[in-house]
Structure formats: C-alpha cells, structure tokens
Amino acid sequence: IIVSWLKVNLTDINIQLRGRLSPDKFIPTMLTSNVFCQVSHIENSPNSICEAMCLGMPIIATFAGGTESMIENNKEGILVQDGDPYSMAGAIVEVKNNFEKAKKMASTARKRALIRHDKEKVALELHALYKSILSLE
Question: In whole angstroms, what is the distance from residue 34 CA to residue 67 CA?
Fold first, then answer.
C-alpha cells in the first residue's frame, strides 16, 4: 500500500522487503543488513529487538511499550519518538555516517542481550521463582 501510495521503486532506494522468513533464511538476512529498524506503535517486549541485539546489529527503535527497558538510548541503540519519520530518518543517517558509534552500540547491546538471554541464568531464575511460589502454600 505504501509503495503504491509513494509511487517509488524500493530497489531504487535500496530497500528490500523480505516478508516472512524461516530461521535458516532469517539469520543470514539479518547479518547482511546494515541496521535493524523497529517502528512499532505498540510493543511489550519485542523478540525482534532481542534477536537483533543477540546478533550484534545496530538498532533504531521507537519509544513504544517496553522497548525503552530493553535498549539504553544512544548506548545500545537509538530510540526515536513513535510517529516521527524525520527522527527515524535522522537516526538511520546517523548510523550510516558514524560506523564506529554504530559498531559500539551494537557490541554493547549484544553483551547485554547475551547476559539477559543466557539459558542457564534464565532456567535458574525460573526455578527459583517456582520454588518461591510453591513455598507460599
């Protein structure tokens, strides 16, 4: 709808819409991308951001729902106001023009994500939570 409304050819502006991808196609696609942009209006705890963080991608996301609790602005990614396309575009240009900053934010985000999503840590925390609940009876 947007493409027909804007009357643009996405390949002319280097945008490729991929649609649904299986995991074996998703990861290589993400790893060959320059930036991950999340433009949701409503979010809780977006898995897509977690995945991009784990892959060490530069992230630009909107201040929507729980996104701000996942990414520290200008440290682990860039957060922009929802519904502000100029801020989103400016953030994309900033990432494009400042490779060192983008690389540092991506690395910092990856470190945080690997700690947050560590399987053993998550399992231990979940086990402790269930033990706590069971001891309340």
Answer: 20
Query: Rounded CA gap, 74 and 89, in Å?
Result: 15
The pair of structure tokens assigned to 30 is 């993400």
Residue 42 DSSP class: S
Nearest to 21, CA basis, from 10, 32, 12 = 32
Q: Tell me which amino acid residue 22 is.
A: S
Spatial CB neighbours of 1, under 8 Å, sequence gap ≥ 6: none
DSSP 8-state symbol, 60? E
17-30 per-position pLDDT tens digit: 778 888 888 888 88
CB 60 within 8 A of CB 96: no
pTM, entire model: 0.78
Q: Helix or strand or coil: residue 77?
A: strand
Contact criterion met (CB below 8 Å) for 55 and 35 = no
